[in-house]
Amino acid sequence: MSHLELVRGDGIQVVRGWAGGNLELPNLWLRDNCQCSECRVTQTTEKKFHIVDIPVDLEPASVLLEDGELLIEWPDGHRSSYALGDIEALIDVAQPAWQVWPDPYRPQPVDWTAFLADDIVAAKALEDYLASGVLLLADAPVEAGTLEALAPRLGPIREVLFERIHNVEVDPDGYNVAHTTLPLPPHNDFASYTWPPSVQALHMLANETQGGESVLVDGWQILENLRRDQPDHFAALCNTPVPFREFDADNETFSVMPMVRCDSAGNIDGLRYSNQLMQAMDPTRPGVVEFYRAYHELSRRVMSGEARICFRLEGGQILVLQAHRVLHGRQAFTANAQRHLQDAYYEQDNVRNHLTVVRRRMNNG
Ligand SMILES: [Fe+2]
Ligand SMILES: [Zn+2]
Q1: CA of 73 to the centre of ligand 2 (A)
Q2: How far is the CA of 329 from the centre of ligand 1 (A)?
Q3: How confident is the model at residue 1, as a pLDDT?
Q4: Ordered domains of the chain (ranges, CATH)
Q5: Which residues lie near ion ligand 2 (Cβ < 5 Å)?
Q6: Which of 7, 84, 131, 290 could form a cystine bridge with 99, CB 3.0-4.6 A?
Q7: What's the CA-to-centroid distance between 56 and ligand 2, angstroms?
Q8: 242-249 mean pLDDT
Q9: Which ligand is nearest to the CA of 40?
Q10: Ligand with smallest separation from the Cα of 32
Q11: Within its chain, how far is the Cα of 284 from the centroid?
Q12: For the segment 168-200, what is each residue's pLDDT rounded down to a tens digit?
């Protein structure tokens, strides 16, 4: 470490020669991230030090770099030390990456009982789910309410209005096109919520009718293709708020949100797409012409077979979808026999939590 040199900059400390470059450490970051027992709640490791207790132009009274350790004394006498190796571990923290579907793609069924009972099976299935956005469970019970049993792996259930476990059957009084025999264009549910459920499970209890094949579309793959081919269209979808409404006699949900959400690094983070719930927007609003051209192109791709698979969901099978990524729909069917689907919702953060906990349990023996 002797080749490292420490230099003061404007509001920062600079370690020269770190990995062949400069490691720039802001003074406020350094003070905020002191790990000593005075600055932490020792019982929980949470931060106790609060940034308001120092001046914004805080400078160390003295700094020393020794054996890969940065030692700082602050003007009030408080001392902090930092291992440069620990700081390096914070750089470029890799996020779990999603993967495009192979071509052709068919989700491989995972046995229901093994998924619930066996941590090794569950960990593999959840890792595949985070990559593909799809988990297909097979040989599940065909009793109503079975989705409650997925809570230990995916849950808790994210409740929304209408029903805790939604029933999708032909219903002449139904509030949604799903309750008819009409084809359902690919969509995600509850676009009318500011934060729609991020995980959806569709449980087929009985599927004896003709037709009604399930359709899945990888919305993020379509959006990546759109961004590559027509970046102006992509931008219009990110920047134009669109109204969505879902309601019945007792409920009224409404949101006004762009169809595409990106994170601060520009990675696609969410697609909100529902032809049936979309409402009329103010036609005089600037950008509506550009938005509609972009929406037309997005819809052409959603309906064209791009990044789409189609298969029959049999009784006893459950589709779990990353609902802000994968759109679901179905083909028209003939109401000549029983078709009964139930769906329930969960949250992606909780799925990741369960995977982390399962991995921890496996590592501990
Ligand atoms: Fe749906
Ligand atoms: Zn401290």
Answers
A1: 10
A2: 7
A3: 46
A4: 5-88 (3.30.2020.30), 110-360 (3.60.130.10)
A5: 34, 36, 38-39
A6: 131
A7: 17
A8: 96
A9: 2
A10: 2
A11: 33
A12: 998 888 888 889 999 999 999 999 999 999 999
